[in-house]
Write a sequence for this structure.
C-alpha cells in the first residue's frame, strides 16, 4: 500500500482524491513516514517541513470538497534548496547560506503553492548548484537509491534521489549544464529543462544568468507535463522571462509519434559514451520507430565548441560569488572554491568569444531542427559513478552531452531507457524547438507508454 | 595528471596560469593549480581554436523565438 501511494502518478492521485478513495493528508503522512525511514540513508532532504505539509494537505482536502479541479491539488512536492522559500531556510547547499531564511518565495514556488501542492520540504543540492559535497561538508551529499555507494547526479541531487525513492511526487530542479537531466538520468526518473525563458528564475540562487534554467523533475513525462503547466508563463520579475503563450501541455500528450521526425546527432554526442548506454539508446530509437517515428542522422557543425560553455558558466559564477570568495572563502567547499576562482581567470575577449560560439551552436542546432521535429541523444556517458571516484579532488568534469542544450536553450527532457548490467539506470534526452515542450513531452510520453523503465523501483525503496 | 611539458599550442601553460592568477588578484592553492589549469584549458580550447574572422557576423546574443512548426509530420 505504502509503495503504491508513494509511486502513484499525479493523474492517479487526482483521480483517487476525487473518488474519495484516499486523501491528501493520508498521502502526505505516508510520504513523511517514508522520508523518516529512508532519508537517514539517502540524505535527500536538507529541511523537512512536515507541519507545513500537513497544513497544505488539509487545505487541499477543503479545496477538493469544494470541487476545485486543479490537477496539482494535494500533490506532494519538494524544492531543490536553491529556490527561495518564505520563512523556510534556503541553504543553497552551502555553509554560506546555512541559516538564511528568505522573506519571500521564488516565483515558481509561489505558483506551485497557488496550484494547491503540498510542500514536503527542501532537497539538498550540490553546493551552489555546482560543487559536489566532499566528506566533512556542512551538508552530507544525497545518495542514489539504486545503489547508495553511487552519486545521484547533480546538482539537483536530492530531487533525483527523493523521486526515485518515492519520497515525493514532484520536485523543482535547476539546470545550468545538466543539473535537472543528470540526476534524472542517474536516478531513473524524468527531468525537463524547459526552453530558456519559459519558466521563471526569479528568486532562485544564480549560477550563470546565461545558462540557468528552472524546471520540473518527476517520475514520468506525463507528470512533468502536469508540473510544467503550473510553472510556465511570463514573469516580470525575471528579465529573461519570455512572453510566449503557454499551451495546454496535456492536450496533445496522447498524440503518439506516428510520422514524427527524429534526428540523431552522431557526432560529439556518442564520444566516450559507454556501450551499454549506446545499446539502450539504439533500442529506444527502435521502439520509437516501431511506434511510427522516422529516424535520421543530422549534424550540428559547431557542436565540438560545446566546452566553451564552461567559460560562460565559470565567469558568470565568479561574478555572482566574487565578494564572498574574496572575503569569506573558508565558507566554500575547497574544491568548489577553486573552481569558482577559476572563473575569475578568463579574459573579457574570451568570454565574448564563448558567447559568440554559443550563438553559432544555437544557430546550427536551429538549422538541424528545420529538418526534424526532435533531436534525441544519450543524456550522459554512462550510469552513475561511485562516490569513491568523484571524491577524488582531481576528478575532471566529464564531457557534457547536456551542455549543448543549455547553450541552445532548447527544451530537453531526460527519461530512462533501461539499466546497466550493474543495475543502474540509463537515459536519453529529447530536445525540441524553442517553446515546443509539447512535442518533447509527447515523444517522451509515447515512449513511456510502450516501456516500463520509469515504473521500476530501486532496492532502497523496499 | 597531464605533464605540463606536453602541451599543444592552444593549451594553457602553468606560467600563463600563474600570471592570470596574479592579474586577477585571487588565490589558488598550489596543490589545485593543475586542476584549475585543466579546467581553463578545456574550456578555452574551442575559443583558442576559433579564427574569429570566420564568424565576423555572429553576435554574442541569442534570441529565443518559436520557430514555424506548422504540421511538420510527414
Amino acid at each position: 500500500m505504502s509503495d503504491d501511494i508513494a509511486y502513484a502518478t499525479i493523474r492517479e492521485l487526482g483521480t483517487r482524491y476525487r473518488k474519495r478513495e484516499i486523501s491528501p493528508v493520508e498521502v502526505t503522512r505516508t510520504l513523511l513516514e517514508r522520508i523518516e525511514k529512508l532519508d537517514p540513508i539517502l540524505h535527500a532532504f536538507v529541511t523537512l517541513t512536515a507541519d507545513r505539509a500537513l497544513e497544505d494537505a488539509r487545505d487541499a482536502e477543503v479545496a477538493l470538497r469544494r470541487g476545485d479541479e486543479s490537477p496539482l491539488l494535494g500533490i506532494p512536492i519538494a524544492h531543490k534548496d536553491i529556490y527561495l522559500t518564505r520563512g523556510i531556510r534556503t541553504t543553497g547547499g552551502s555553509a554560506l547560506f546555512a541559516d538564511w531564511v528568505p522573506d519571500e518565495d521564488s516565483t515558481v514556488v509561489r505558483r506551485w503553492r497557488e496550484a494547491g501542492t503540498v510542500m514536503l520540504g527542501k532537497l539538498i543540492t550540490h553546493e551552489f548548484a555546482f560543487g559536489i559535497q566532499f566528506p566533512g561538508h556542512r551538508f552530507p551529499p544525497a545518495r542514489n537509491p539504486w545503489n547508495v555507494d553511487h552519486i545521484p547526479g547533480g546538482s539537483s541531487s536530492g530531487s533525483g534521489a527523493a523521486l526515485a525513492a518515492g519520497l515525493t511526487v514532484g520536485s523543482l530542479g535547476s539546470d545550468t549544464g545538466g543539473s535537472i537531466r543528470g540526476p534524472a538520468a542517474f536516478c531513473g526518473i524524468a527531468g525537463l529543462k524547459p526552453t530558456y525563458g519559459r519558466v521563471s528564475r526569479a528568486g532562485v540562487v544564480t549560477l550563470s544568468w546565461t545558462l540557468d534554467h528552472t524546471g520540473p523533475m518527476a517520475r514520468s513525462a506525463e507528470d512533468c507535463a502536469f508540473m510544467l503547466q503550473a510553472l510556465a508563463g511570463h514573469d516580470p520579475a525575471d528579465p529573461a522571462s519570455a512572453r510566449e503563450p503557454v499551451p495546454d501541455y496535456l492536450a496533445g500528450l496522447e498524440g503518439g509519434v506516428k510520422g514524427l521526425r527524429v534526428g540523431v546527432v552522431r557526432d560529439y554526442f556518442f564520444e566516450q559514451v559507454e556501450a551499454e548506454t549506446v545499446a539502450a539508446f539504439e533500442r529506444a530509437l527502435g521502439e520509437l520507430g516501431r511506434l511510427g517515428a522516422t529516424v535520421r542522422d543530422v549534424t550540428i557543425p559547431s557542436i565540438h565548441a560545446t566546452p566553451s560553455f564552461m567559460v560562460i558558466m565559470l565567469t558568470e559564477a565568479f561574478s555572482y560569488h566574487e565578494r564572498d570568495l574574496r572575503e569569506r572563502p573558508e565558507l566554500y567547499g575547497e574544491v568548489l572554491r577553486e573552481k569558482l576562482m577559476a572563473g575569475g581567470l578568463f579574459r573579457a575577449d574570451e568570454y565574448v568569444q564563448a558567447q559568440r560560439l554559443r550563438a553559432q551552436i544555437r544557430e546550427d542546432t536551429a538549422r538541424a531542427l528545420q529538418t526534424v521535429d526532435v533531436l534525441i541523444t544519450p543524456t550522459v556517458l554512462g550510469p552513475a559513478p561511485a562516490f569513491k571516484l568523484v571524491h577524488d579532488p582531481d576528478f575532471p568534469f566529464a564531457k557534457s552531452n547536456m551542455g549543448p542544450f543549455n547553450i541552445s536553450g532548447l527544451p530537453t527532457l531526460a527519461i530512462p531507457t533501461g539499466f546497466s548490467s550493474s543495475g543502474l539506470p540509463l537515459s536519453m534526452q529529447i530536445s525540441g524547438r524553442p517553446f515546443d515542450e509539447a512535442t518533447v513531452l509527447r515523444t517522451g510520453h509515447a515512449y513511456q507508454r510502450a516501456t516500463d523503465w520509469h515504473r521500476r523501483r530501486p532496492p532502497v525503496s523496499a | 595528471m597531464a605533464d605540463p611539458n606536453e602541451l599543444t599550442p592552444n593549451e594553457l601553460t602553468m606560467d600563463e596560469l600563474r600570471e592570470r592568477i596574479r592579474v586577477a588578484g585571487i588565490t589558488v592553492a598550489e596543490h589545485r593549480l593543475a586542476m584549475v589549469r585543466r579546467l581553463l584549458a578545456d574550456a578555452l580550447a574551442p575559443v583558442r581554436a576559433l579564427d574569429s574572422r570566420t564568424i565576423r557576423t555572429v553576435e554574442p546574443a541569442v534570441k529565443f523565438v518559436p520557430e514555424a512548426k506548422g504540421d511538420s509530420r510527414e
